[in-house]
Design brief:
alpha/beta; 38% helix; Rossmann fold; 7 strands
């Protein structure tokens, strides 16, 4: 590990110590400052492979990811309640401080889906949608206006808050559904979906993530698309990493690692046909980063839209 990487790891561990001493992770000025410092540090261009760190450091990273996940859930819950208190919640959805990031990530994911889907998706599942299902809302409103979105979360209060956001919209309330259940308990229903999104924080370690992916691989329809959010480089201090080579039963179609303010990497994979179930995953020859093609930097790929710009 070179000097720059040592500085990065030291800074992250220093911030972790401060975060771990907090009594609460609910949104506040102090909490927001610490997590902003952490995100800024982890989006630095310093190349690093967290799997090469010491066991002790990796255990600390695992604890940090869980703290980040808890804080993210509390932040989304806070803003979902705030936005949902308005008469027309969708008109106020940009109150969420990372709304622009979700616009960019959703545009990226739709671009990748458009490139790799053989048919227009009509049934979409989002696993781990949470109290503020921005991706589902943005995709359903701006890009996939005829698709139904089934949002899965194990937390009934999260689904209740999420439903409040779209219940007054005559279009989305007919196309967006919320299921309070562990995705591990869903089997035959997974065959209905053309695309399944797996949120970054569903499965907080390798074992949990692998079990969930294997379950999806067993029950999704042959040819269906799995879109996974992962992390790369220093961003792996914030979110769990999904290794594309471990996606048994899937053909990996595309991998994208952002280098701007968008945090999550995106992996697109297709469920093997029945006679390919035991094949190893096929990894694309090129992973897209800023040095290659970056949809986020090419305005002519897909025009960026906001909820207010939706067409009727």
């Amino acid at each position: 590990m070179d000097y720059q990487q040592e500085l990065l790891v030291g800074k992250v561990l220093e911030i972790f110590q401060k975060i771990s001493k907090l009594d609460k992770l609910n949104p506040s000025k102090h909490v927001n400052v610490l997590f902003t410092q952490l995100v800024t540090t982890c989006t630095s261009p310093c190349p690093i492979d967290v799997t090469r760190l010491s066991i002790e450091d990796r255990e600390t990273i695992s604890k940090l990811i869980r703290l980040c996940g808890k804080a993210e859930g509390l932040l989304e819950s806070h803003y979902s309640t705030l936005i949902g208190s308005n008469e027309n919640p969708l008109n106020h959805i940009n109150l969420f401080p990372y709304y622009t990031n979700y616009l960019k990530l959703s545009r990226l994911e739709f671009t990748m889906l458009s490139t790799n889907c053989t048919k227009v998706p009509t049934q979409v599942a989002f696993v781990g949608s949470g109290p503020l299902p921005l991706t589902s809302i943005i995709l359903a409103t701006c890009y996939m206006r005829h698709a139904c979105f089934h949002n899965y979360d194990i937390d009934p209060s999260a689904n209740s808050k999420a439903f409040r956001l779209i219940s007054s919209d005559p279009d989305l309330s007919n196309r967006m559904f919320f299921h309070t259940t562990d995705i591990a308990n869903v089997s035959s229903g997974l065959e209905d979906y053309d695309v399944v999104f797996l949120a970054a924080l569903v499965g907080m370690d390798d074992k949990e993530k692998t079990q969930i992916i294997n379950h999806l691989g067993k029950h999704m329809a042959p040819g269906a698309i799995l879109l996974l959010r992962s992390a790369h480089g220093a961003r792996a201090f914030l979110y769990p990493v999904v290794d594309p080579s471990g996606l048994k039963g899937f053909e990996v179609l595309s991998v994208f690692h952002p280098t701007d303010e968008v945090i999550n990497s995106v992996i697109i994979a297709r469920k093997h046909a029945v006679n390919q179930e035991h094949c190893s995953p096929m990894i694309p020859s090129k992973c897209y980063e800023v040095e290659g093609f970056n949809p986020l930097n090419h305005g002519n790929v897909i025009e960026e839209l906001t909820i207010d710009d939706k067409q009727t």
